[in-house]
Amino acid sequence: MSKNQHYFNTNKNTWNEKVKVHSKSSMYDMEAFKKGKSSLMPYELKALGNVNGKTLLHLQCHFGQDTLSWSRLGAKCTGIDLSDQGIKLAQKLNDELKLNAQFVCCNVLETSAFVKDTFDVVFTSYGVIGWLPNLKVWGEMIAEKLNKGGVFYMVEFHPIVWMFDYLEETPLMKYGYMQDEVIYEEYEGTYANENSSMISKEYAWNHGLGEVITALTNAGLHIDYLNEHYESPYNVLPNLKETNTGMFEAEHKLYPLIFELKATKI
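== Class I SAM-dependent methyltransferase ==
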């Protein structure tokens, strides 16, 4: 077994456990979601606008709430994720809510082997690229899955955020902005429920903005914009304060918490 396969298998096991915890958490608020509440955040809603009638591929979809939220807006969606438990729950939710999304369990880097269609939109969001050792393969897959004129949109935590070790009492800058070496962390709980007794064992990689943009442009995509924001829609980092827009920001405002990127297949 290759090193990367060991890393992926460990992450898959952890995400299978996270599905059980997250699906019962207040952060994912399953009851409100089932009653019609969208899980999508302002950044992606503004960026993608009217998706009615468009085909949409959602990469690393967890248990499908965002995928199904796009479905509710009229998109014809396919969601993929590494976690078989996540995909199982996503399919169950799709059936229960009588939506028409499809879900596929696979490693995101192997999407092309499992999903043969091409799409008007490819979407990915919040805590996704850190699980990938290689963005070159990722960029090529995105370009391959887009129709001509199609749009790729991602919104993600800023690379500077991942330079810190949050397992320390006071977050400590410990990891490289661009770091080839894998980062291993093991801790109790998960971002959606810090009091959970589950043990998260995670392998991750840090990718700078230059690597992200180069992976996409080398694959033939045109970058429409790259925006950086101080405000995060999720309160998942230490010592954030809520703003009057319902977002969260660090008091120091020394660096952005989020970036969003939109690209087009010419």
